[in-house]
Amino acid sequence: MNAILTVTRKEIRQAIRNRWVLAATLLLAALALSLTFLGSAPTGTVGVRALDVVIVSLSSLTIFLIPLIALLISHDAIVGDMERGTMLLLLSYPVARWQVLLGKFTGHLAVLAFATCLGYGLAAAALSATGSRIDHDSLMAFAAMVGSSVLLGAVFVAIGYLVSALVRDRGTAAGISIGLWLLLVLIYDMALLGLLALDQGRNISAAALNAMLLFNPTDAYRLFNLTGFANVSTFAGMAGLAQSTSLSVQVLLAALTLWTLIPLGLAALAFSRREL
Amino acid sequence: MTGTVHVADVSKKYGSVKAVSGASFELGQGELVALIGHNGAGKTTLMKLMLGLIRPTSGSIEVLGDNPAAGEFAGRRQLGYLPENVSFDAALTGRETQAFYARLKREPVAKALELLDAVGLGAAATRRVGTYSKGMRQRLGLAQALIGKPRVLLLDEPTTGLDPELRQTFYEIITRLAAEGATVLLSSHALTELGERAERVIIMNRGIKVADGSIERLRNIARLPTRIRLKVAGLAPGEVPSWLPTNAPCRRLNGHVVEIDAAPEQKIEVLRCATAAGTLEDLDVVPPSLDELYAHFLRQVERMP
Known about the structure:
The complex is a heterodimer of chains A (276) and B (305). With 276 residues, chain A is mainly alpha-helical. In chain A, 81% of the residues lie in helices and 0% in strands. In chain A, helix 3 (50-74) packs across helix 11 and helix 7 (136-166) runs parallel beside helix 13. Chain A is globular, with a radius of gyration of 20 Å. Chain B has helices at 43-51, 94-104, 109-118, 134-145, 164-179, 215-222, 267-277, 290-303, and strands at residues 3-14, 17-28, 32-36, 58-63, 79-82, 152-156, 183-188, 200-205, 208-213, 226-232, 250-254, 257-262, 280-286. In chain B, the strands form three sheets. In chain B, strands 5-6-7-3-8-9 form a six-stranded mixed beta sheet, sandwiched between helices. In chain B, strands 11-12-10-13 form a four-stranded antiparallel beta sheet, covered by helices on one side. Chain B has a three-stranded antiparallel beta sheet with strand order 2-1-4, covered by helices on one side. Chain B is elongated and about 75 Å long. The A-B interface holds A 2-3, 6-7, 9-10, 13-14, 17-18, 84-86, 88-97, 272, 275-276 and B 48, 51-55, 71, 73-74, 76-77, 79, 81, 83, 85-89, 91-92, 96, 100-101, 103-106, 128, 141, 144, 154.
């Protein structure tokens, strides 16, 4: 336990030194703030539920940005340390490989959580400071959005580790990570949409569609935020889908958790078998 | 003497390349052992095997009661390792790096930081490792290996990049540690580098252990001739002193000097004859150098089928 925390502390300190924390926080805060004020322009002064609009736009932003940041931090974690030679020395210490992996994971996740909470929190704070009324429901939905964004980050940190544990050099890890990002964030949805349009509801049942949505962590995240809260789903234009989907909030969260644990477990397994 | 490291018939193959084949030895408490071999002789592979960084293809290893191949690492708290070309995270300072490693070993951080002064890094300890020179990284590497009074020290080419002064300090430190009961395994590509400091020498060639013993013992096994140079008065060019034992190969070097290759048991006899003759002006006895000894063992393997 102690060894894990020691590794975590070192990772966080390194991320602060390398300005990862600063860069990620500034990026998320800048985008969140600009979305908050530009996004509320169409609703104008009539918009009574300004925060709900922000949730919709921020969660769409998260789907692109958080996986990218998470993969950028994580793809290098194992193969990079091996190439730099620091892993050789670290593993000669009384620490198990899974402890190294878990320590890095908590460290990287802490950095991501800090940036997300601060960046997005600023947006909510700015909104309330400019006089928007924020009710309890909206606040809960916002907190859930921030929490699930961190969870989505955890998913992609774990995926990045799996890539990092499997490949031989950093360049390959970076390439595969970008490919995975494109696939999960862009291509998967387009392909799914194309498939549904072709099929026109003949063969693909609702259950099959649900399964396909759970098979992509970004879709699980999207459904969780856009359909999970009634007040938000009306703004997201997904009220229809929210009624027809049978995926409960618990199932979506479980899917995201599994999407974290399975790649992380596989990464630990691959790492434990590697020879340095 | 209790063994701290046991290596039993260990082989390691990378594909079709045999990095180590059938190596067996045992290292005891308080032994200062030199592991000698060319680049690619299997020195680094052996150390990695002892650390469990790689698993042996066959054979078994035990280090401080652990089987490293099975991922056991309880004993590693008392183990120090300095890899060849050691590297550290560039963003951290020397102090932070040393403190990190001390925490991993669950040793007091303050005491580990004192080691930075001992290796002459005191002034640079608050600078980032990224700004360090090769020699400074090597010093930090030594400092981390010495954390917590290790019982086993594995040092892979530890003195490369060290200036002569620190090299001296380094040998003092490890000799003291060995005297206090630590096992020190030190790899190097040249035997001369270590001089006579190592009590025991293991020579590796192409993954095979070709010699193992004290330098004295290796000398006896190798039976290399001692070179005796005599300066004799009044010798005609090309003439060899008549009083020399007939079976000792000898040659003229220049003006008055005769060089004799004396087998170990001939040495005293040659010297006795030379001093008895009375025409001797000067004499030098050159024992076989460590390099010659090393070369002898490597040649011996080449000749083996």
